[in-house]
Design goal:
It catalyses: heme b + 2 H(+) = protoporphyrin IX + Fe(2+). The protein is about 20% helix and about 15% strand. It is α+β, with helices and mostly antiparallel strands.
Length: about 425
């Protein structure tokens, strides 16, 4: 059996794994991770505690030792690409590529073949090429996820296959977008629980691009490392807020409908057939104005968010998962959770049920010339249709979210992420060979 066969064969080892057992079994295997946070569901800007960073779709089980971190392996193949419902990893790299001048459909297909072969090997904990960076490391929950930007379809002569869902996002008042760090023909998300493993994947995929594509922009992110807390818990963002309490859960009956493109038009899909099992990723670099935020008292910060800083519970009491009482008033007749609190405005029930699976990374890229930290959130959200997920929630936040004064959206991208590769396939094959 070859290495690539093992990467797709349900009986391969590193702990025998059954890829045919379905999403629940697959996620149970990935719960070997210690501490996990994943992407929240109601907020955007930075998902306050009801917001951006958040619970993983699959919550970790207690008792995972640190020794399990390097051993944990995420399957490459499947109905969906990895890195969407995978528990949040400690390290992430986001990179966009533009096809090189003269490169088209043929070159793109060859590139996706190379990337898929590399991802299979690396995610199985096997080195690709002559790199020795991870020679003594395990797979460390490595995932590689690939998507296509709007411009990709014109470059490859596949305009008729471009989904309507890739129409440009509307402008928002908090946008201060840098075009050089936005969009792109191709997008790659890399996640791992070891920084060297993540870097090795980034470097290898960049080398694989060869003359076919050039890096347009690249961003680095991080989260809490599995095992860093005594018990698994929701992660915190750089504002110190428990972040991601209300993320959609896979146990919810409408989870798949909200997050993944259905397999056929009978299920209400207007997407092209090659997107079956796929999802749409909105990617935004959201800078947190930490100096301004930290001037607020803790009480003022909690009113901006609508939740306690200590444990993420709503200001109306209870625990992190207690439903907030939006109709509760204080002794002065004011709402306990202010009308412009991020947690109130971002809730799905305040946005016609609009929700998305948020799975971001924090970032810190040093300090500017004034000594202000260039830090914040690499916001990534997943949905079956961005016009029903990201857009209505962000519009609502744009009109009156108290958190908006402390954040700035600096780059943006929207990518169509096809379903997972079947055995013997490469990612995107159903599009490029249609």
């Amino acid at each position: 059996m070859t290495v690539d066969d093992r990467a797709e064969n349900p009986s391969r080892t590193t702990g025998e794994r059954d890829d045919t057992a379905g999403p629940a079994a697959e996620l149970s295997r990935r719960r070997l991770l210690g501490t996990v946070g994943a992407a929240g569901a109601g907020g955007l800007a930075l998902g306050a505690v009801g917001g951006v960073a958040g619970h993983a779709a699959a919550q970790p089980e207690p008792g995972a030792g640190l020794a399990s971190v390097g051993r944990t392996e995420v399957p490459f193949g499947g109905e969906h690409q990895p890195g969407i419902t995978t528990p949040m990893q400690a390290r992430g790299h986001l990179v966009a590529f533009d096809l090189a001048p003269g490169a088209g459909r043929k070159e793109a297909a060859a590139l996706l073949r190379r990337w898929s072969a590399t991802a299979r090997r690396l995610m199985a904990g096997r080195p690709a090429g002559d790199s020795t960076i991870t020679l003594d490391a395990g797979p460390s929950s490595l995932t590689v996820t690939v998507g296509f930007g709007r411009s990709f379809f014109g470059r490859t002569g596949l305009e008729k296959q471009r989904p309507f869902a890739l129409d440009p996002l509307p402008a928002f008042s908090s946008d201060r977008l840098d075009a050089k760090r936005s969009e792109g023909d191709l997008w790659v998300q890399i996640g791992a629980d070891d920084a060297l493993v993540a870097f090795d994947a980034l470097r290898t995929l960049q080398r694989d691009a060869g003359d076919a594509a050039r890096v347009r922009w690249q961003m680095n992110g991080f989260n809490r490392t599995p095992g860093a807390t005594e018990q698994p818990m929701t992660t915190r963002n750089l504002m110190g807020q428990v972040d991601g309490t209300n993320n959609p859960k896979e146990s919810e009956p409408d989870f798949r409908k909200r997050i993944f493109v259905p397999a056929n038009a009978a299920d209400g899909s207007s997407d092209p057939a090659w997107m079956a099992g796929g999802s749409y990723a909105v990617v935004r670099r959201i800078r947190m104005l930490l100096d301004d935020w930290e001037k607020l008292s803790q009480t003022a910060q909690e009113k901006v968010i609508g939740r306690r800083k200590s444990d993420g519970a709503p200001l109306t009491g209870g625990s992190e998962t207690t439903e907030p009482k939006l109709d509760a008033f204080d002794a002065e007749g004011k709402p306990v959770i202010p009308a412009d609190a991020h947690a109130r405005i971002s809730r799905p029930d305040q946005n016609g049920g609009a929700a998305m699976l948020r799975r971001p990374f924090s970032f810190h890229d040093g300090y500017d010339e004034d000594g202000v930290p260039d830090a914040g959130l690499l916001f990534i959200c997943w949905q079956a249709d961005p016009m029903r997920g990201f857009v209505p929630v962000q519009r609502k936040l744009d009109r009156g979210d108290a958190l908006s004064a402390f954040i700035r959206h600096e780059s943006s991208g929207l990518f169509a992420v096809p379903g997972g590769a079947r055995s013997g396939e490469y990612v995107g094959q159903r599009l490029l060979e249609s």
